[in-house]
Design goal:
Blueprint lengths: L8 H18 L8 H12 L5 H8 L3 H11 L13 E5 L5 E5 L1 H15 L9
Antiparallel strand pairs: 1-2
Helix pairs in contact: 1-5, 2-4, 3-4
C-alpha cells in the first residue's frame, strides 16, 4: 500500500475555512446539525425555487430523504419538532412546489459565504 503524503498547509487552511464557514449552520441549535442538512440547505441557496425531486436528483439522494431534510431545515423537523426555519416549500401550481430560502436562511447563507471569503456578516439570526 502506498504511503499517503502529509496534508499541506494550504489544504489545512482550506479545511479550516470550510469548517469555519459551516459554523453559522451548526450554531442554529444545541445539538449538532447533520451534514446532509447543510448540503441540502446550500443546494437550495445555490439553486433556489426547484422542487424537492430536483434537489434529490442533483444530490444523488432519495426523494424521501431529501424531503425529510427539507422539512428539518424548514418549518418542522422529526416528530413535529420545530425545524430550523431556513427554507420553505411554496406551491408553484396545482401539482408542483418550489423550495425557497426564508429571510432567516438568507442571513445564515450570507454568514456562511462571508466566512468563506474571510469577511464577516453582521446581521443577527432570530
Amino acid at each position: 500500500m502506498q504511503e499517503a503524503e502529509p496534508i499541506s498547509a494550504r489544504d489545512r487552511k482550506a479545511a479550516q475555512t470550510l469548517l469555519s464557514a459551516l459554523t453559522p449552520i451548526s450554531e442554529l441549535r444545541e445539538r449538532p446539525i447533520p451534514m446532509p442538512f447543510a448540503v441540502v440547505f446550500l443546494s437550495v441557496v445555490l439553486n433556489e425555487g426547484q422542487p424537492v425531486g430536483w434537489y434529490a436528483k442533483h444530490l444523488n439522494m432519495t426523494r424521501f430523504a431529501t424531503f425529510k431534510y427539507v422539512q428539518s431545515i424548514g418549518e418542522r423537523g422529526r416528530h413535529n419538532a420545530a425545524g430550523l426555519g431556513l427554507v420553505t416549500i411554496k406551491p408553484r401550481n396545482r401539482v408542483k412546489t418550489a423550495v425557497v430560502v426564508t429571510d432567516k436562511g438568507r442571513v445564515v447563507a450570507a454568514q456562511v459565504f462571508a466566512k468563506l471569503r474571510g469577511t464577516h456578516a453582521h446581521k443577527k439570526i432570530d
